[in-house]
Amino acid sequence: MQESTLSIIKPDGVEKNLIGQIYKRFEDSGLRILAARMIHLTKEDAEGFYGIHSGKPFFSDLVSYMTSGPVMVQVLFGEDAISKNREIMGATNPKDAEKGTIRSDFAESIERNIVHGSDGPETANSEISFFFKREEICLPTI
Ligand code: CMP
Asked: What angle do CA 104, 85, 15 make, to 5 degrees?
């Protein structure tokens, strides 16, 4: 099924100058970028985006880290985009990520894990609308 998902290249990915290499992996796997923006999240942004994790022991570190530098946010679109993106990213903890995935190749730790991707259709919808207005998403013309 053709669907959209939200992807974030986190501050460590931007700092390590990996935007192009990560975009190439998306494109090589058949995903299209329909919208993209670089943004430096505020504390309120990060707390809102990761609201589901509030109360967890890692929450305040996660918010500090996500606000430590700019991130790249993008809408990815294609066949099974949600699971495909998660496959390309690899497991949340890079120690568990399969070789050849973004997190296995580039990430340092479960917290500094380079990328975020929506984990299901409902999250994808809410995460996409957290960052993008409908008119900012350029649907494919082909
Ligand atoms: P992400 O996919 O962006 O979703 C929530 C993030 O919280 C996750 O990636 C990790 O970066 C972070 N996270 C999840 N579990 C832990 C944990 N046990 N310790 C520290 N950070 C975590």
From this structure: 55
- The one-letter amino acid code at 40 reads H
Among candidate residues 108, 114, 92, 113, the one with its CA nearest the CA of residue 23: 114
Query: Annotated catalytic sites, by residue?
Result: 116
DSSP state of 18: -
Tens place of pLDDT per residue across the chain (142 aa): 999 999 999 999 999 999 999 999 999 999 999 999 999 999 999 999 999 999 999 999 999 999 999 999 999 999 999 999 999 999 999 999 999 999 999 999 999 999 999 999 999 999 999 999 999 999 887 6
Tell me how far the alpha carbon of residue 55 lies from the centroid of ligand 1, in angstroms. 13
Of 82, 78, 73, nearest in space to 121 by CA: 82
The reported pTM is: 0.97
Amino acid symbol at 35: A
Atom 15 of ligand 1: nearest residue by CA position: 110
Torsion over CA of 56, 59, 60 and 66, rounded to 10 degrees? 180
